[in-house]
Amino acid sequence: MKIRFLGGVRTVTGTCFHISVNNMQMLIDCGMYQGENADEINKISFNFKPENINYLFLTHAHIDHSGLIPKLVKDGFKGRILTTSATADLSEIMLYDSAHIQEKDAEWLTKKALRKGINAVFEPLYTVQDVKTSIPMFERKSYGKVEHIGKGVKYRFIDAGHILGSATLELWYQDSPIEKRIVFSGDIGKKGNPIINDPQHVETADYVVIESTYGNRMHKSIEESIDELVEAIMITFKKGGNVLIPAFAVGRTQDILYTLNKLVKQERLYNLHVYVDSPLAEDATKVYLAHPECFDEEAMKMFNRKNDTALHLHFTHSIEDSMRINKIKSGAIIIAGSGMCDGGRIQHHFKHNLWRSECSVIFVGFQAKGTLGRKIIEGAKIVHVLGEDIAVKAKIYTIGGFSAHADQKELLDWLGVFSNKPEVFIVHGEENVSIEFENIVKKKFGFVTHVPEKGEEFEI
What we know:
With 460 residues, the chain is α/β, with parallel strands linked by helices. The protein folds into two domains: 271 residues, Metallo-beta-lactamase, Chain A, CATH 3.60.15.10; 181 residues, 3-Layer(aba) Sandwich (Rossmann fold). The protein is built from 14 helices and 22 strands. The longest helix has 31 residues. The radius of gyration is 22 Å and the shape is globular. One of its GO terms (molecular function) is RNA endonuclease activity. InterPro entries: Beta_Casp (IPR022712), MBL (IPR050698), Metallo-B-lactamas (IPR001279), RibonucZ/Hydroxyglut_hydro (IPR036866), RMMBL (IPR011108). This is MBL fold hydrolase. Keywords: Hydrolase. Pfam families: Beta-Casp, Lactamase_B, RMMBL.
């Protein structure tokens, strides 16, 4: 087997690994790059021929793992996309949303050029029609079932505990007298994530590809994080401001809503008006409710009770609905995308609230290098938002305990379950983080390790 690391190495975005074995070609994820120069990077041609790819294994629905699937199809892919049922459902709504954004951005750039007297037409990265072509290629698989795809290759998905439907992939292959197994962690969830089950473990493998998003740090406990969330909301409301929570529409939004609802039922917070300014988040929440097979025991009990919502919950559907939120000066919790603040409706709410010292922004997810969210948490005093320079006067909170990713200790615990000594490839982390995590893994376990460069190939 040959494996090439084409994305999601020495960075936390654009995950894509290419495998060649027994005259078959496969991809593990096909993610969109997010951050600086993202538009130019995503337009670059694939480093393989899409028409030659037989299978795409999709570990979960987040756009940094799934976002270039329509481009792959547009460029000639005609194979099968293997993933869990919940991931297939979430991917459908997310890819349609992404296509709408691509089309609108291309239309806006074309109009901008025409206003400057430039006769240029900008093409979207992919279209809604490309997504429509992609959807029938998805094949829904269950956790835990070993599936054979021929030529000495079989696989199974197990629960990665990251978001609804997220999976770790076990892949067996036989290109010599001895069968070997490689495990792709996907994004590993932390224990105790709301709603979904804790990550499952694999106990033996010859090779392991593991993410390292938080490979150099520890999260606060969920209890400490909830205490901090309650304190931030109470202080902000007492000052007469609004709470802004930039959140990924899939995963983090549902976790935060679940937690806020629980806090009101426990009478730790009262009379909460929560505005979810994201049609995608509303659709994703409906997908969550349609997949109770992925819930943990506590979530199952809560969702099985009728009329269990203790929040004043408002979903926006139109631009006008979104604009009306900006007339609210205090007492609102506003959850909006994008999670890293580089686009989406959160920017409009920043424009109306970020400069107000009585307001607060609560970051509950990872902010990649170069994104607006990263600049704010690193202490920028002025940021450029929607064509304007906006002063950062709001109180900024970073609550890592709500992250859907395992921290350093949990990543090491996940690796520590392997009863043999697999060769380990460390991916999906900023370069310094992956290298630091590699040194810890070597010292703790004595494993042979690699932090691949983008485009690097290994024969295993």
